[in-house]
Amino acid sequence: LKNNPNSPLIHHNLGLVYQRLKNEDLAIRHFKKALKADVNHLDAYYHLGKLLIRTKRGKKARKYLEHYEKLSKHRYLEKKRGPPNPVSLLLRKLDSSSTDSFYEDE
């Protein structure tokens, strides 16, 4: 990070590490830094969206997950390889249930 402070990959990976350590605020900060460095970083949109749902911020999560879905569809059509990694199930769950019970079974 010292040599490359704007690396989206480093910030994304730090977000994953902090998420695993249950430090959601730092994880969110690093996922957002990854997106600031690369506005097309699919994994950062996905993980940030899921984390925001987990921390009961469903409205914010929707923005990131919808952007993820839009980008992944675009890349699928552009490259024509394998289906996009859909988040439509997460978006449907956001519509149909409260975020309080969203991850009860995990």
Short description:
The chain contains 5 helices and no strands.
Low-confidence stretches: 99-106
Question: Largest sheet, described in full?
Answer: none
Tell me, briefly, the overall form: flat
* Portion in helices: 55-70%
The total strand number stands at: 0
Strand residue content: under 5%
Return the average pLDDT rounded to an integer.
82
Query: Could you give the order of the helices and strands?
Result: HHHHH
Q: Label the structural class.
A: mainly alpha
- What is the number of helical segments per DSSP (H or I, 4+ residues)? 5
Termini gap:
32 Å
Radius of gyration, rounded? 14 Å
Q: Which characteristics define this entry?
A:
disordered C terminus; mainly alpha; single chain; 67% helix; 0% strand
Question: How would you describe this protein?
Answer:
This protein is mainly α and 106 residues long. Helix content is 67%, strand content 0%. The protein is built from 5 helices and no strands. Helix 1 runs antiparallel to helix 2 and helix 1 runs parallel beside helix 3. It is flat, with a radius of gyration of 14 Å. The C terminus is likely disordered.
Outline the fold blueprint:
Elements: H1 8-20, H2 24-37, H3 42-54, H4 58-79, H5 88-96
Helix pairs in contact: 1-2, 1-3, 2-3, 3-4, 4-5
